[in-house]
Structures are given as structure tokens and as C-alpha cells.
Design goal:
elongated, alpha+beta, 27% strand, 2 domains, six-stranded antiparallel beta sheet, 434 Repressor (Amino-terminal Domain), three-stranded antiparallel beta sheet, Jelly Rolls, single chain, 35% helix
């Protein structure tokens, strides 16, 4: 990306953040100790942004310089999931940096009948889990219950109930969302089940 393009991106981000907060030029100018006319010229590209002005604007907008000058390309939008494989289960993580964002983990899973589920293979951890069946039929072991969840249906449950998800009568593909507790528990479970060497 050229210097001109990056400068325009920064100007658009400053203007966008100001407008998203409902602030006038005067309101933001007062917060970053610039004159409204200087701020207007910065936003419209009639004035170069100095580093000290960028620092003041980032503070006033409650963001960082890194976020203001982060390059724009497909990498900030496109996620190229890597496949994690263990017996009977392939997982593709479809979200990024969940720990940093405090958000949820979204993943696609392909489960085959080879996956060990049911008594002796149930997990318990704080949180909630949700999944949607893309194809096939999932067999949800939830405490003493076994619940068949077919294509086009979803399930949501407390992960404090002993649980596991298997495949009924062939492979099943699901889209699943874990909260942070569920993400940590499943990551630990995958790590524990990975063969050494």
C-alpha cells in the first residue's frame, strides 16, 4: 500500500470513529487539543497528519495508533482455516484471536463414528456450547440422555452437564460456537488426546 493510500485510510478511520461517537469536529478538536479547522483539514486531506497529532487523536478516540494505521488488505477480512485432525474428528477454526477480543470461538467440525463418545468420554467445564448441523446427524450425549440432532437443526446446552458430540449413522458436519471457557476446555482436551512424538 502506498503512503498516499495509507494516509487516506487513516483520515477515513479518524472521521469514521468521530462520527460513530456522534461527535462534531468541535467536540473531537476539544478532546485532542486541536483547532476545529486543523482537524477539518486533516480529515479532508488538506493537511498532513503529524505524529504528535496522531497520538492525540488516537487517545481522544480511545484507540491506538496501530489501529489507525493498520494496513487494509484481504488479510484483515479473510480467514484461512487450518485443519486439526484427531481420531474421528477434524476441526477448522473459523474465527481469530478470540482470547484477545474476549469473544467466542467459531469452528466447523467433521465427526465420524470413529470418535469415542458417550460414557467414559464425556467432558464437563464452565460455559455454554451451541452447534448447528450442516449435514448428517449428530448424536449429543448430554448427561444420561442421547439426543439425535439432524441436518438443519441446532442445539445449545450448559457445558456443566457431562457431554460429548458424536456421529450417528455416518459422518456429520457441524458449525459450533464455544464461549471462552469452552474454547479452553476443548483446546486442552485436544492437546491431551494428541499422540506424542
Amino acid at each position: 500500500m502506498s503512503q498516499v493510500d495509507l494516509s487516506e485510510v487513516v483520515r477515513q478511520r479518524i472521521r469514521g470513529l468521530r462520527q460513530a461517537r456522534g461527535w462534531s469536529l468541535d467536540a473531537l478538536a476539544a478532546r485532542c487539543h486541536l483547532s476545529p479547522s486543523t482537524l477539518s483539514r486533516i480529515e479532508t486531506g488538506h493537511r498532513r497528519i503529524d505524529l504528535d497529532q496522531l497520538v492525540a487523536l488516537a487517545r481522544a478516540l480511545d484507540t491506538t495508533i496501530d489501529q489507525l494505521v493498520e494496513p487494509v488488505d484481504d488479510a484483515d477480512v479473510i480467514i484461512r482455516p487450518m485443519r486439526h485432525q484427531e481420531p474421528g474428528l477434524a476441526t477448522w477454526v473459523l474465527s481469530r484471536d478470540t482470547a484477545q477480543r474476549g469473544g467466542n470461538l467459531v469452528a466447523k467440525m467433521r465427526i465420524t463414528p470413529e470418535r469415542r463418545t458417550g460414557p467414559g468420554h464425556l467432558s464437563v467445564h464452565p460455559g455454554r456450547e451451541w452447534f448447528f448441523v450442516l449435514s448428517g446427524t449428530a448424536l449429543l450425549h448430554l448427561g444420561e440422555r442421547q439426543i439425535a440432532v439432524g441436518t438443519g437443526n441446532a442445539a445449545e446446552f450448559s457445558t456443566m452437564i457431562p457431554h460429548s458430540i458424536g456421529a450417528l449413522n455416518g459422518p456429520v458436519e457441524i458449525l459450533t460456537i464455544f464461549d471462552q471457557d469452552g474454547e479452553r476446555a476443548h483446546a486442552q482436551s485436544s492437546h491431551d488426546s494428541t499422540p506424542e512424538g
